[in-house]
Every structure is written in structure tokens, then in C-alpha cells.
Design brief:
The chain has about 475 residues and is of the alpha+beta class. The protein has two domains: about 5-340 and about 410-479, no CATH class; about 355-400, Glutathione synthase lid domain (Dna Ligase, domain 1, 2-Layer Sandwich), CATH 3.30.1490.50. About 40% of the residues lie in helices and about 25% in strands. Strands 7, 8, 10, 11, 15, 16, 23, 24 and 25 form a nine-stranded mixed sheet that branches. A four-stranded antiparallel sheet has the order 17-20-18-19, sandwiched between helices. A three-stranded antiparallel sheet has the order 3-21-22, with no helix packed on it. A hairpin with a 5-residue loop joins β12 and β13 (about 250). The longest helix has 22 residues, at about 40-65. It is globular and about 65 Å long. The model has no long low-confidence stretch (mean pLDDT about 90).
Length: about 475
């Protein structure tokens, strides 16, 4: 057991440093966290560090291959209404194969590639996160929290650490992400010839509870000389206009240099209760499209959101490495990327028959196109779901090899709501952040931008920090 004094001290540290969620009454609740870091073999981590910028390079180029996106996602657009809506917006922005439009927005891909280190097959991609890919600040702060525990409460840290000889891995996800954004912001500002500070616009959800992770990024950007503003799509629908040379103008603020979407990955982000339901969804999604028609650095573009979808992940997994040359990758880079892609299968009558008669059902997970937690179905529940699915919705789903990461070798303590919970089967997911700005040489932004570790009990299907049984964690390396 951990002394109550240690729990209170670490929870207060977490809240004081912004590792918290806002509550309905405007109080703060600390994020759940582990008391000591997970360990990973050095060679596994180095492999992921090496391959992840290449994954980002691939996704960045796929996202600008508009012919490929429209052709590849036409079926899922019919099967998933939200993706159908995104494809419509994509056509409005970029036209079609016979009438391709040029746009001036400057893609800024802030991506988190999530991995699990499978016991049998090694580290594999869980998913690509190209929109609302947050929690870089929490990733860095979790590392700093463990450093604090190691220094302030060394006996507690040693008692619960997995391997005393493991070396904590430095994590500057917050500062690196902010630095990449700043490069884009100053570039767009200089091109516009405006005076004053560059301006960063974060598009947020109304009544957002994850404000502290967002504010930590804003504070770092402010330190770098950037003004930050926050708006919902509903607010932006009446506050945006066009300036000279397709400059994006925000009412009472002026020119906008970077737009960062922390909303827009689900239908509800385009719904405003005070507006007519059909009208509001059209108006707010057109607001997103309006932003993209201006000279602004942007994450996530509609194209980036489509390129990081489960369907594109499946297609990249299924195609041979030689096909990657379409996007300017070498065969060596393609083979490296393929080494971290877990097997995926489309949902159709053949795969359903195979799954129900031949497959080991525990080795697969069924996923739809949804972002975040709550979109995965496991084991025997897959057969039940496939039986319920109408054929017209098959293309919205995919089967993916289920990953079984090794369990932590020693038990740990999770701290949640200022209470400790003993866990003897903790598994971890590591997300590696990358920053790719399409108009800046690779030497300026080297790609990798820190990490986020989230852990959960092995028997829990959902490991979200918000709603699941996930806890913030950090990383220590062993030979």
C-alpha cells in the first residue's frame, strides 16, 4: 500500500501542473495515473522512433492524393453517413478527377500513431490519429510526474517500478508539438506580411472537460510569442471572413495563421441545439470548409481526417510494399512501415463466413470508423454484431488482428480520484507524436515529437483516460 501522504502529494502535483479534467462545477479532478513507468526494450522503442516519422510521411502524402482518397472511400461514404458527409466536403474543396481544384491551405499534420507491443508479433499500429490528436501535454506531464515521484518519494517509486535498472525516457511532447506549430505560424504570418504576433486558433467542443491539456499547449505557444484564441464551430459560423490574398480573418482578432481542430471528428461537433438540426449541421460543416479555402496552416484538413481513417489503414495494410512508391517512398521505407501494420480484413460475405467458421475469434477485433474509445467489438460479440449488420453498412467496418501486449512484470498502483487501486495485469499503449508541415523542409521539423503512454488492466476493452479504465503512464527503457 502507498502512504496517504504520498497519494495526496502526487494528486496535488498533478492538479497544480494541469494534469486534470474540468468538472461540471468548474472544479478540477486529476487524471488517473500510474505510480511508476512502464518498461520497454530499447530496440523496440528505437524501431518505433525510426518508423513513425516514415508513417507520418506516408499519411501526409496520401492525404494530398485526392484521387486515391475519393476512389478508395467511395464505398465507405455510402455505408457511414458521417464519412459520406466528409467525402462531400472533400469534393467541395478539391473537386473530382475531371475537375481538380487547387486550394491554398497549408496542411500541418499533427499526428499520433498508437502502438501496442504484441507478445507474439512485436509492436503494431493500433490506429492513426490525425484529428483531435491531443494529450501531448499530458504525455510530457506524466513523465514529469514520475520524475517528481522518483525524486520526492524514492522508496515508493522503487517499490513499484517494474525494473530498477530501467532508464526513464525523456519526453518533450508538449514543447516539440508547440515548436512545430510555431514554425508553421510564423511562416504563414510572414507570408501575409502582417504586423504583430502570429495567431493560433483552436477549434473546441462546447463545454469541453479536457481543457487543461489544451491550455497547457496554449501556454507553451504563448511563451513562443504566439497569440492563442479558442472558438467552437458555432461561434466561428458568424465570426469568420476573408481578407486579401485569401487571408482568414476572425472578428475582433484579425488574421489567423494556424487552425488546430480539437473538434470535428463526430457528427455532434457540427450540431448546435439552438439551430435547426439540418441547418446547423450544414452550416457548421461549411464553416470547416470555409477555413480550408484560406491561406492558413491547418490540422486536421478534411483530407488528413480521411487519410487516417480505419479504411485507409486497412488498404495500406493490405497493399504490397511496392505500391507505396506512388507516394514517393522507397521500398526500404515501405517495408519498414509494413513491419508495424497489423493484419486487417474488409467486412464482406466471404470474411463473415470465414470468421464464423474458421477464425479464432479471440484473435480479432471489429472496428468501425469512429475516433476515440467505444468503437471496438471483441470475441464472440463480433459474430453477433456481424449478424445484425445490414450489407449496406459492411464497408463502414473492418476486422483487425487483436493485439495482446505483454503484461507488466510486477503489479502497480493506479491512482484515480485520490484513491489507490492495485493492478496485477497492466498493459500499455504508446502513442508517438509527429509534426509534418508540408511546406517546410524536413531538416526544420524532424518528425518525431514525443510520446504518450496509456495503460489499463488487460481484461478491460476500453483504455480511455476520459471514460475507460485507462491511466496516464510514462516510459522507461531496458536493454
Amino acid at each position: 500500500m502507498i502512504a496517504q501522504q504520498v497519494i495526496e502529494d502526487t494528486c496535488e502535483w498533478a492538479i497544480m501542473h494541469g494534469v486534470a479534467f474540468r468538472q461540471a462545477d468548474n472544479s478540477a479532478r486529476h487524471c488517473p495515473f500510474s505510480i511508476a513507468p512502464m518498461t520497454m526494450k530499447l530496440d523496440v522503442y528505437q524501431h518505433l522512433r525510426n518508423v513513425t516519422p516514415m508513417v507520418a510521411k506516408l499519411i501526409n502524402r496520401v492525404s494530398e492524393d485526392h484521387d486515391f482518397l475519393q476512389a478508395s472511400l467511395s464505398d465507405v461514404a455510402k455505408a457511414d453517413p458521417f464519412f459520406g458527409h466528409l467525402i462531400q466536403l472533400h469534393h467541395q474543396a478539391h473537386g473530382d478527377t475531371n475537375n481538380r481544384k487547387s486550394v491554398v491551405r497549408q496542411p500541418l499534420l499533427l499526428m499520433r500513431t498508437d502502438y501496442m507491443d504484441d507478445e507474439q508479433n512485436g509492436a503494431k499500429v493500433v490506429e492513426f490519429n490525425g484529428i483531435a490528436a491531443g494529450m501531448a501535454p499530458f504525455g510530457q506531464k506524466a513523465t514529469e510526474l514520475h520524475q517528481y515521484i522518483q525524486q520526492q518519494w524514492p522508496h515508493t517509486y522503487q517499490a513499484w517500478t517494474e525494473n530498477p535498472s530501467a532508464i526513464p525516457e525523456k519526453n518533450t511532447a508538449l514543447t516539440q508539438l508547440a515548436s512545430g506549430i510555431a514554425v508553421a505560424a510564423f511562416k504563414v504570418k510572414n507570408e501575409a506580411g502582417d504586423s504583430g504576433k502570429p495567431t493560433f486558433l483552436m477549434v473546441i467542443q462546447k463545454n469541453e472537460d479536457n481543457v487543461y491539456d489544451q491550455h497547457l499547449l496554449e501556454i507553451e505557444l504563448q511563451r513562443l510569442g504566439i497569440r492563442t484564441v479558442r472558438r467552437t464551430f458555432e461561434q466561428l459560423s458568424t465570426e469568420l471572413s476573408s481578407g486579401e490574398h485569401q487571408r482568414l480573418i476572425l472578428q475582433d482578432v484579425g488574421g489567423i495563421d494556424v487552425v488546430y481542430l480539437r473538434a470535428g471528428y463526430q457528427y455532434s461537433d457540427y450540431y448546435a441545439p439552438d439551430m435547426d438540426q439540418h441547418e446547423c449541421c450544414h452550416t457548421l460543416s461549411q464553416t470547416r470548409l470555409f477555413i480550408e479555402l484560406h491561406n492558413v496552416a491547418m490540422n486536421a484538413t478534411i483530407s488528413q481526417q480521411l487519410a487516417t481513417s480505419k479504411t485507409i489503414q486497412m488498404l495500406l495494410t493490405m497493399m504490397p510494399a511496392t505500391d507505396y512508391v506512388r507516394w514517393g517512398l522507397s521500398i526500404e521505407e515501405a517495408i519498414l512501415i509494413k513491419s508495424v501494420l497489423a493484419e486487417m480484413k474488409p467486412v464482406n460475405t466471404d470474411t463473415i463466413a470465414w470468421f464464423n467458421t474458421t477464425a479464432n475469434k479471440q484473435q480479432w477485433v471489429l472496428k468501425n470508423q469512429g475516433e476515440g474509445g467505444g468503437h471496438c467489438i471483441f470475441g464472440d460479440d463480433i459474430s453477433r454484431k456481424l449478424k445484425q449488420l445490414p450489407a449496406k453498412e459492411y464497408d463502414a467496418w473492418a476486422l483487425m488482428q487483436r493485439l495482446y501486449p505483454r503484461e507488466r512484470e510486477v503489479p502497480t498502483m493506479a491512482i484515480r480520484d485520490s484513491k489507490q487501486t492495485y493492478i496485477d495485469n497492466l498493459v500499455s499503449e504508446i502513442g508517438l507524436f509527429t509534426v509534418t508541415f508540408i511546406n517546410v523542409p524536413a531538416t526544420t521539423l524532424d518528425g518525431y515529437a514525443g510520446y504518450l503512454v496509456r495503460s489499463k488492466p488487460a481484461n478491460e476493452g476500453e483504455g480511455g483516460i476520459h471514460s475507460g479504465q485507462g491511466i496516464l503512464d510514462s516510459l522507461a527503457l531496458v536493454d
